[in-house]
Amino acid sequence: MMPSSLTISAWNWMWPAIAFFVIAVAVLAWSYRAAAGHPMRWWCLLLKALGIAALALCLLEPLWLGQRARPGSNLFAVVADNSQGLQIRDRGAAKTRGDALRELVDPSKPGWQSALGDTFDVRRYLFDARLQPTTDFRELNFEGRSSAIGSALKTLGERFQSRPLAGVLLFTDGNATDLPAGTAPDLKGLPAVYPVVLGRADAVRDIAVQRVNVTQSSFEDAPVTIQTDVVAAGFRGQPVTARLVDRTGRTVQEQTADGRGDGEPMAFRFQLKPDQPGLAFYQVRVAPRDQPVPAPDAKGAAPQSDEATLANNSRVIAVDRGQGPFRVLYVTGRPNWEFKFLNRAVQEDEQVQLVALIRVAKREPKFDFRGRVGETSNPLFRGFGNQSAEDVQRYDQPVLVRLNTRDEFELRAGFPRTPEDLYGYHAVIIAKVEAEFFAADQAQLLQKFVSERGGGVLMLGGMESFQDGKYARTPIGDMLPVYLDRDEGPMEPPGPLHFQLAREGWLQPWARLRDNESDERSRIDGMPPFAVFNRVRSLKPGASVIASVRDEKGAELPALAVQRFGRGRTAALMIGDVWRWGLRDAAMHTDMDKAWRQLVRWLVTDVPNRVHTTIEPVVGDPNGAVSVQVRVRDEKFQPVDEASVTIDIQPIVFEGTAGAAASSIKLEADPALTEPGLYQATYVPRQTGGYQAIASVKNNAGADLGRAEAGWSTDLAAEEFRSLVPNLALLEDIARKTGGEVVALEDLEKFTKRLPELRAPVMETWSYPAWHTPVMFAFAFGCLLAEWGLRRWKGMP
Question: Which residue of 220, 244, 408, 772 sits 20 to 30 Å from the alpha carbon of 28, by its own alpha carbon?
Fold first, then answer.
C-alpha cells in the first residue's frame, strides 16, 4: 500500500495562525487566574488550548496527499488454470476445484471482478499447455493435459513487455508440469504476481499409478518384467489390487497389497511371456480390492467413485518383443554334435531360423590322378549319375553342405563374399573352423557385419577355434571379447571343468534358467563337468564375463564372455563340448536346449533390419509430442536418401474402456538434415493411451523396401496428477520474488478493493482537505465542550 502524507497548502497564513494561537493562549491563561491552585486548572487549560490549536490549524488548510493507480491507465492480467488437475475433488468437498473456480470467475456475478475493472484494464487468460486469451472464462473445461505455469508466466512477461501491467492474479493449484522439482520459473519482466490457491492442503483419498518400468530380456519363461509403483492416500491398511490386462480386457495377472501411509509407494512386479511375437499392449489398472476400476467419463470424472480422480488409476504399456524371422548363419569346419543339439533347440523358437554351412571335407591340392578319365571333381561329393561340373565340388575346393537354406541359391558359393549376401543374416555362429577358411575379404566383411550392420557373432570352443584356429591378429579375432595370444609356458590338459555363473551372469536374465537364485544354484551344481576348453589369456577392456569354469586346482577361467563392438555385439564361448550337458538325463537336455535358445535370442536382440522405426519424445513439449524416426538402408545397409516413407499412426483401444476410439492418421515423413537415411515425422497425441506406428517405405521407382512398426504409450495426465495437494511452496516463492502475495479465496474481494492503493506503473496523486472535515470540527468542538463540562463538574469559576 502506498503511504499518504500530511502537507500545508496555505503557508501564507502561518504567522497569523501562530499569532492567533499565542494571543488566544495568553488570554486563556489570564482568564484562569481566579482558579489558581485548583487541581483541575491545568487540564482545563490544556483542553481549551487544543481546541484553539485545531481552529488555528484550519487557517493553514492542511491536506492529505497520496498516490493511487490511475483508473483505466494500467493493465491487470487475470490468469486461470484450465488443466485436468482441477477436476480433483478435495476430501469432504461438494464441488471440484474446477467448479469452484468456474463459479468464482462467473461474469454474471458482480464482486471482485467489478472492483478490479473500475481501476484497471483487465485482460483475461486461461492456460494449460499454453496461454490463450478469453473474454469471460466461458472456455473453461478443465481438460488441459498439463499445467505449464512457468511457460504461461514467461509468455505474459514477453507479451506485456514495456506495457503498464500492474499485476497478475493467478488462479491455480500450483502443480506445474513444466517445472522440475526445485526449479523456479522465469519471472523476468513480470510485475507482482498474486496467486490465488485452489484446493486444500489436507490429503485427498486417491489411488494412483505413479511409475511404470518395462524391462525385456531373453529369459525364455518370462522375458518381460513390468515394475509398477502405486501410491495411495487415505487407504492405509486397506487392500489395493493391481491388474494387468491385455487389449481384449482379459486379466493377465493380478496382485494385491495393503495400502501404506499417504505417499508411500507400493511395488507390483509382473513377469509374463507375451502370447504373440512383435508389438503388444497391456494396461495396468489399480483399484481397491474386489472393485473394478470405474471407467471415467469424457472429462475423466467418475461420480460413482470416492477417489479424488480416476484419471491416474491406469497406465498403458507398449511391449515390443521383436518379430522375426531372425536368421542365424552357423558355420562349422566339421560335422559335430554341437550343431545337432543347437539346431534341435532353435527349432522350438518359431522366430529364429538357423541356416548351416558345414564343411565335410577340406580343400585339397590339385593332383594329376584322375578318378575317371578326364575327371577333376572330388569323388567324395560326386554321387551317382552324371552331374554337371557346376554341381560337383573340385579337389581344390572344400566340400560344403548347406542346411535349412531359403532356396537353392543361398550359400551356393560358400560363405558370403558380398554385403548383400551376408547382411541378410542377424547373427553368425562360428564353430570348430580355422581362420584360413575365411578369405581376407570375407573376414573383413564379417567384422563390418558386426560394427556397421549391427549383427552378432558368437565363436564356440573347439580344436580349431580361438588360438587353435589361428584367429589371433585377424579381423575376426580382433572383434572377439578375449585376447587370443597365448600365455608363455606349457599348456596342461584342463581336466574336469565345473560351470558357474559370474557376477555379471547373475545380473543377466538370459544367462539364467531359473527365476530364483536357490534353484539356479542347485541346477548349476548338478551340471556335468566339461572336458573341452579353449584357454584365453584375458578379457579385453569393456568385455564382461558371463560364466566361468573351475578346474581341479580351483582356478577360475572365463568360459563365456561378451562385449559391444561397433553397432553390434560379439561373444566367445570357450567350452567345446556343451553337448555333454544334455546327455545326462531329459531334464538336463531340456535345460541345455533352453540355454541355447536364450543365447541365440540375446545374440539377435537389437539387431536392426533394413527398415527400422523408433519413437523419441520431443524434449520440452508439454503436449506429449513424439518424433517417429524411420531409418532406411539398402541391401548393403547403406543409407537410402531418396525414399518415400508413409507412417500410419493407429491408436490402441482396450475393450471395456470408456470413450470413442480415435481414427488412424497417415503422416509423410521428411528426410532429416542431420543423418543420412533418416526420415522423421512429429505426431502430437490427442488422448492418453497406446499408439502403434507402421512405416511403409518405397524407393524412387515405387518398389517396396520394407515395413517396420513401433509402439509407445503416453500418459498425458501423469505429471498433472503426480501431486494432488496444492503446491503452496511454489506459489509463495513466485509471489515473494515478484513482490506479490498469496491470496486466500475468502479474501479475494477484500484484496481487489485495496489493489488500487498498491504500486502500479501509472500512478496519480490524490489530495484531501484535512481541515474541511467533520473530524477536525468535532475534535475542536469536543475539546472546548470537554473543558466547559470539566469546569462545571468541579465547580471551577
Answer: 772
Measured CA to CA, the distance from residue 52 to residue 164 in angstroms comes to: 48
Write the pLDDT tens digit of every residue in 453-475. 999 999 999 989 999 999 999 99
Mean pLDDT comparison of 263-267, 510-514, 720-724, highest-scoring range:
510-514
Nearest to 17 by CA among 43, 67, 54: 54
DSSP conformation class of 293: P
- Model pTM above 0.85: no
Q: For 478-535, how does the pLDDT look when each residue is reduced to its tens digit (9 = 90+)?
A: 999 999 987 544 445 567 999 999 999 999 989 999 989 999 999 999 999 999 999 9
Inter-helix orientation angle 41-58/14-31, to 10°? 160
CB atoms under 10 Å from CB of 69, counted, come to 24
Q: For the chain, how long is the longest CA-to-CA vector?
A: 170
d(CA 786, CA 73): 49
**The residue type at 227:** Q
Cα 796 to Cα 10, 31, 49, 790: the distances in Å are: 38, 12, 17, 8
Q: Cell match 540355454: residue?
A: 595
In the chain, count H helices and then E strands.
15, 32
Under a CB-based contact definition with an 8 Å cutoff, are residues 63 and 768 in contact? Answer: yes
Give bridge partners of residue 498 from the DSSP assignment: 550
Angle between helices 41-58 and 774-794 (to 10 degrees): 160
pLDDT at 460: 96
Residue with cell 473500475: 118
Residue 28 phi/psi, 5° resolution? -65, -45
**Per-residue model confidence (pLDDT) at position 126:** 94
Residue 660 has pLDDT above 60, yes or no: no
From CA 516, how far away is CA 436, in angstroms rounded?
A: 44
Other CB atoms within 10 A of residue 23 CB: 11
Contact between 228 and 282 (Cβ < 8 Å): no
C-alpha cell at 105: 470467475
Lowest model confidence (mean pLDDT) among 127-136, 178-187, 384-393, 559-568? 384-393
